[in-house]
Specification:
- The structure holds two protein chains of two kinds.
- Chain A has two domains: 34-154, Sandwich (Immunoglobulin-like), CATH 2.60.40; 162-293, Sandwich (Immunoglobulin-like).
- In chain A, a hairpin with a 2-residue loop joins strand 5 and strand 6.
- By secondary structure, chain A is mainly beta.
- Chain A has one helix spanning 2-30; strands spanning 33-39, 41-47, 54-60, 73-80, 83-100, 103-114, 124-135, 140-152, 162-174, 177-189, 195-201, 207-209, 246-248, 253-262, 271-280, 283-293, 295-297, 306-312.
- The model of chain B is unreliable at 15-23, 223-242 and 246-250 (pLDDT under 50).
- Classes of the chains: A mainly beta, B alpha+beta.
- At the A-B interface, strand 5, strand 6, strand 9, strand 10 and strand 16 of A face strand 9, strand 10 and strand 11 of B.
Chain lengths: 314, 250
Amino acid sequence: MKKKRDFIIIASALIFIIFSFILIYLLVNKFDDVDILSVKKEYNRVFESSEDTLDIPIYIGKRNTFLSNYKEIESTSISSNNIQLKASLSQIEVGCTLIYNRNKYYEYIYHLSFDSYDSFQEPLFMSDGLFNITYKNGNRLSFRIGNLSLFFNSNLNTRKDIFFSRLQAVTNEIEGIETIVGVNISIKNNTDSSIHIKSISIKNEHYDLDYMNYENKQIDTALNLRSRDESYNYTRLFIDKSDMNLNIEPIEIKDIFIPLIYTKAILSLDRFPVYIEYEIDENEYLFVQDDFQFMKRMDVLNHNGIEKYVYRYH
Amino acid sequence: MKKILLSIFLLLLMTTFYICSKNAYAEKYTTFEEINFENDYVLLLDTWDINKENMYLDNLNKHPMFGWDIYYTLRKEPFTYTAETLYHVKNLGSKEIQHTFKYEESYEETIQRSVKGDIKVSLSYSENSKKGTPEFKGGLESKLEFEYKQSLKTKSTESDTVKIVVAPDSELFIKVKGKGYLYQGVAKKFFFFIPTTKGGFEYVIITTEYYSIDMEPLNTLNIDDIDSSIDSDDDLSDEDYYEYYEYDEE
């Protein structure tokens, strides 16, 4: 009888301990915070069709949460001030695992495509843009992703009047930020007529190619431009956008260097398209070089522009 | 008798370790077209002779019971490099072509290693990567200083592409330059105070890559090109005459 009573007491205690553990485990998981990081970057992109996607990396402190589950997402958009651009989420790509401030983060790359590919002549500029995700459970999260300059045109480069025979960035470290300070460009005239180049630009409000001050030579390295005078000012409020007046004769190749000027602050640039406005026999045309990755920094979380968010389960 | 048997056993064990670990291993940075160090005294591991290796190994004097004794000969030596041409498209036709270049398969590995002596490199496979990630074998990897290793990204996104127009009778090259840091040293592994593995190790951490587009005219048609044009059917479009070459990363 005593043995039976002891058994019941021990069994009850064990059940109580097991249930306590389960309860604690569930509570800990239920109210656990999830750290999320977004990186503020300069997105300069050209979209010709739904195959061209805007890829936004988000770093989440936990794996397999609803935050990175494609099936849990109802809609996505990009917004800035009064502009909101609806986007379709084509996939969430699982990236690499990184450490930031001693915490582990899992990279998820959200691939967004857009519905409208009308032939715009100017890029849509969105300053301090937000990436918005609406989940099926009613949650709506917004992440700061930086400045966006999105050019939608499904009818690009139908004429083949000019080609780039060289495209190369010249970089430098300014105010502790390694960024692009100019481009070496070689343009070939592929026609039988003289081509009048009016402008070569990035069409961005925060920085642009200072094409009016182009040089008829190229800088022979893509690495740090140490040779440039240290007093050279890479920031200037106003960039002259007059007619460049560069003429290229038939079959001629022009090798030039164009400095890149920042209008507000030095920003970390690595990828952008190049827009060339030109004339042949007084007819105006636009050539667009698809956004080219000029440089790539490997330490993605080791520079400025990291925004931290905490999601708390309710 | 027991002592003799134990000695023979240990001798056999060490011989097996020695025979099995003599394969040299070096990753792509050792074959870069050009690599320039900021400091002139830097020499890559593969230029070491046995005397130099032994000289550095003499600096190891901790002799732990188990594990590694490590001596760095170089730390965080800055360098710049020019890699081999990563991508090459040849347009043999008379019309321009639009080519889409995918960055994904072209990035250099962010951390690259090479070894000398008994030290080896193995491949580990994670759930997201079909391609193995190399690491120094025998627990050496975790003992080394990989400054900000964990913050480095090693691959691009799947849709990371750029469209480039290739002129007729031209070839397009995408070239890569970059910069990073080099670390170099020697290490010995001990098992009950007996050294079982010893040799040199070296690794580079690539911090930035720079890409450029270069297009050159096809001035000289070689015999193969002429032959292929003659053999081709007249109905073939210009696109049929374009070739592209992707350089193997391995």
